[in-house]
Automatic annotation (TrEMBL):
Keyword Hydrolase: yes
Chain residue ranges for the region called Disordered: 114-138
Keywords, alphabetical: Hydrolase
MF annotations from Gene Ontology: nucleoside triphosphate diphosphatase activity
Coiled-coil boundaries: none
Gene responsible for this protein: LOC104223229
Pfam families, per database record: Maf (PF02545)
Alphabetized PANTHER family for the sequence: 7-METHYL-GTP PYROPHOSPHATASE (PTHR43213:SF4), BIFUNCTIONAL DTTP/UTP PYROPHOSPHATASE/METHYLTRANSFERASE PROTEIN-RELATED (PTHR43213)
InterPro entries attached to this UniProt entry: ITPase-like_fam, Maf-like
Protein name: Maf-like protein DDB_G0281937 isoform X3
Hydrolase among keywords: yes
Polar residues biased stretches: 121-132
Length: 231
């Protein structure tokens, strides 16, 4: 099937495989660029303002690169830049400010311990490792997901952005499942250390209030709405 955007181009400003898949499943053809920004330097009063500010900062960074490289060509077809950001509120906004640092530190430490445990096992030794607080925090609990989408029409200078909020409720997640996820390592690069669509995680999702694509990083209906508004 022909892509939906024959009359305009799309640049997805994200390295997220989940966002790439969602946008492709929506029927769009696009290229990918990533933004190198210092997210820790951007702080806002609340989570909703923060995710929008981060998505806008990513867009600004990519636009600067495009201007430097003269990537955009003069043509009759507008080019849309789509950026997004997602954060997980497991307890409160205060928890949000420290959770990324704490989660990353604990997951990396867990990965180091797993490698050390394997090495010791090969030498006939044993070592007990502890589960990371972030993974156990989701087990049997709830996470609030706040995500943003920003669509910038690079040709017309129009920018449209908005945020959405979802809630995810979990069954108790067995320790061995959390161990397997950490050992696999993929969640080290995922916001909040959670992949809703992961085969190991999905069976323990009780209820999603909102949409799964929003939790995965790119809400379809909101993205579609903003694309049309930006055009």
């Amino acid at each position: 099937m022909a892509p939906k955007n024959l009359s305009f181009k799309i640049i997805l400003g994200s390295s997220s495989m989940a966002r790439r898949k969602i946008l492709a499943d929506m029927g769009y053809d696009f290229t990918v660029m990533t933004a190198d920004i210092d997210e820790k330097s951007i702080r806002k009063e609340n989570a909703e303002e923060l995710v929008v500010a981060l998505a806008e900062a990513k867009a600004d960074a990519i636009m600067s690169r495009l201007e430097t490289t003269d990537h955009l060509e003069e043509n009759t077809h507008p080019t849309l830049l789509i950026t997004a950001d997602t954060i997980f509120l497991a307890i409160s906004y205060l928890h949000l400010l420290v959770s990324r640092w704490r989660c990353t530190k604990e997951l990396l430490e867990k990965s180091r311990q797993v490698r050390k445990k394997r090495a010791n096992s090969s030498k006939g030794l044993s070592e007990t490792t502890s589960l990371p607080a972030q993974g156990k925090g989701y087990s049997g609990g709830q996470a609030t997901v706040v995500g943003s989408v920003v669509v910038t029409n690079l040709t017309k200078g129009i920018r449209k952005g908005a945020w959405e909020r979802s809630e995810v409720y979990f069954h108790e997640i067995p320790d061995e499942v959390i161990d397997s996820l950490i050992e696999e390592g993929i969640i080290l690069n995922v916001a909040g250390g959670l992949m809703l669509e992961h085969p190991l995680t999905l069976p323990f999702v009780d209820t999603v209030i909102g949409t799964a694509d929003h939790v995965m990083g790119l809400p379809r209906s909101l993205t579609e709405k903003l694309i049309q508004e930006a055009l």
